[in-house]
Amino acid sequence: MTESELNGAMPRGIGIAPYLRIKQEGMTENESRIVEWFLTPGNLNHISGIKEVAQSLGMSEAMIVKVSKILGFSGFRQLRSAIVEYFDHADHDITAELSPDDSPEDLVNKVFNLTVRTIVEGQAIVDAQEIQQAARCFFNARQRELYGVGGSNSICTDVQHKFLKIGLRCTAFRDAHLMMMSASLLQPGDAALVVSHSGRTTDLKRVVEIAKDNGAKIICITHSSNSAIARLADFNICSPAPETPLLGRNASARILQLTLLDAFFVSVARQDIDLANKNLEKTSAITQYLKRDYK
Q1: ∠233-238-239 over CA atoms, to 5°?
Q2: Is pLDDT of 3 > 50?
Q3: Burial 63-78 (b: 16+ CB within 10 A, else e)
Q4: Burial of 295 (C-beta count, 10 Å sphere; 0-12/13-18/19+)
Q5: Where does 3-90 sit in CATH, by number?
Q6: How would residue 7 be classed by pLDDT, with cut points 50, 70 and 90?
Q7: Which of 73, 154, 192, 243 has the greatest count of CB atoms below 10 A from its CB?
Q8: Strands 217-222 and 191-195
Q9: pLDDT at residue 244, as a whole number
Q10: From CA 221, how far away is CA 223, in angstroms rounded?
């Protein structure tokens, strides 16, 4: 679902949480805090009044109404209804914080539940058509570059490996200077796949600006289509992820990004499935050499 579609057709149920996280980008600190409060289990129920909410947050009722409208709702009551419906669909236990008293089983279950929640919520708002169009652009590109810093750089390396297996050559750079050099050489007909959870990393934003100025198409995977880097992109694949006290948002975002990139990879491969299968057979056969048993 694209940003315009989200504005025109409000998601319901499990899809409301990732929708709100996308809309959070660009909000003030107080506005964002209100959204986080709404998404915290137990804070809101079907009889919660706006006066009670404002007092709990230490803010004015006007501010609550303002944020409700920024999020695309007619007012507080419509937002309250959507949030209550979300928690009716969600498993309340999966939002529980990690505790020093947790058993090993509890810890493992909470991490698994967070992963499941992240993927299910992401699936609820994923835009399959956007992925398909981005895949077509990437497949037809003359040259393909992969840009990401920090943890996102590791994701780019994984993507490079996947595409090489089906015969699509692309390059992931580990250094921001090399990314800038690469972007400076891009031309119309080229494509850059950019992975950034925050969508605000200064060096990466500059890389994208250079690539775009040179006429390359930009495919961006980030938490919000409202982020600075996403606004420069031709194609946006959103990966809004829930916060967790110990793992933070980046950990759950990585899971969703990898899943979305698998969907993107398959979509690219399907542009010429016969060629992809043929190259996969070649690359799989050659690497069998490395798996020989030496006596």
Answers
A1: 135
A2: no
A3: ebbebbebbbbeebee
A4: exposed
A5: 1.10.10.10
A6: very low
A7: 192
A8: parallel
A9: 62
A10: 7
**What is the secondary structure of 213-267 as a DSSP string?**
HTT-EEEEEES-TTSTTGGG-SEEEE------TTTHHHHHHHHHHHHHHHHHHHH
List, as one string, the DSSP characters of 151-169.
HHHHHHHHHHHHHHHTT--
Domain ranges of the chain: 3-90, 128-285
- From the list 144, 195, 192, the residue with the least C-alpha distance to 167 is 144
Residue 94 pLDDT exceeds 60: no
| 13 class by beta-carbon count within 10 Å (0-12 exposed, 13-18 middle, 19+ buried) | middle
The yes/no answer on whether domain 128-285 falls in CATH 3.30.70.100 is no
Q: What is the DSSP letter of 98?
A: P
Which phi and psi angles does 27 have, rounded to 5°?
-75, 160
Structure tokens at 44: 């809101």
User: For residue 117, what pLDDT band results from cuts at 50, 70 and 90?
Assistant: confident
The two three-digit tokens of residue 203, written as one number: 């060096």
Burial class from Cβ neighbours inside 10 Å (0-12, 13-18, 19+) for residue 219 reads: buried
- Tokens 């919000």 correspond to 224
Same fold, 3-90 and 128-285: no
CA distance 212 to 172: 18
Q: Is residue 50 within 8 Å of 61, Cβ to Cβ?
A: yes
**Beta bridge mates, 217:** 191
pTM score: 0.83
